[in-house]
Design a protein that fits this description.
This protein has 248 residues and is of the alpha+beta class. The protein contains ten helices and nine strands. The protein is globular, with a radius of gyration of 18 Å. It starts with a helix and ends with a helix.
Length: 248
């Protein structure tokens, strides 16, 4: 399947041919955004929802002292700002971490998907719930895990999320030490020490600022990683999404 958006949504349950055809039109006009560029700024009133087809983007906030906190990572198949169609303005910024291929989806298209495609609506609702589950896990990690376990847990999560959409490559995490620090809430110097520790333990490999997992089972055991919060393949009881009866 070449449509990474459809592949992501199919983790929530089966999609019919008409769903697949509609999603193929959604991703039909991508464009490239260079690394470390903002897709949308804090306070903006966007007219489009952004979808990542390739690369890695992040959700972040800037602190009064100029520091940055990265609060979410968006990978291929992820919608960056679905809720903005309801909330109206951004309370954070979204930027690229690598060169990205992006699709801008008009609000009218999102409304059409929600109103007329119940299986897609359920999948989008699932994706939003998974985003919230990931955020909860990040809060647990930051509050209760030491930095090396927290970083190992992050690498396990990214491994699983990329594998789920067929985007797992040998060197798959192009995160700098500064970016890792902004995710984990530690200094870039501390992040460097943690990366070195994981590398010397034989759990990861680092080449040209790209991290690859050497032994996923060992890394997940070290991190205490349990993938259930990602809900991959966990579609729950067969049922119509909220409001599906009105759409059929």
């Amino acid at each position: 399947m070449t449509n990474v958006f459809a592949r992501k949504l199919r983790n929530a349950g089966p999609l019919m041919p008409e769903d697949m055809e509609r999603l193929s039109h959604v991703v039909s006009d991508p464009f490239v955004v260079s690394a470390r560029e903002d897709l949308i700024h804090h306070g903006a009133n966007p007219e489009f929802v952004h979808l990542v087809l390739r690369g890695m983007a992040c959700r972040y906030k800037i602190l009064p002292d100029g520091g940055r906190a990265i609060v979410a990572l968006m990978l291929p198949g992820d919608i960056c700002d679905l809720n903005i169609a309801i909330l109206g303005h951004m309370d954070h910024s979204i930027g690229t971490l690598t060169d990205c291929e992006i699709v801008r989806i008009p609000r009218s298209t999102i409304e059409d998907l929600l109103d007329n495609y119940p299986r897609i609506r359920r999948a989008l609702f699932w994706a939003t719930l998974v985003d919230e589950a990931i955020l909860r896990q990040w809060l647990v990690n930051m509050g209760r895990r030491r930095a090396d376990h927290q970083m190992a847990h992050l690498f396990c999560e990214l491994h699983m999320r990329l594998q789920a959409v067929g985007q797992l490559h040998d060197s798959f995490m192009p995160l700098t030490q500064e970016e890792l620090g902004d995710i984990l809430g530690i200094s870039s110097v501390h992040a460097q020490r943690v990366v070195s520790s994981l590398r010397h333990s034989g759990l990861i490999n680092v080449q040209a600022s790209r991290v690859s997992v050497m032994d996923f089972d060992a890394l997940s055991t070290f991190a205490g990683f349990e993938e259930d919060y990602l809900h991959l393949g966990d579609t729950g009881p067969a049922r119509s999404p909220p409001g599906a009866a009105d759409a059929t």
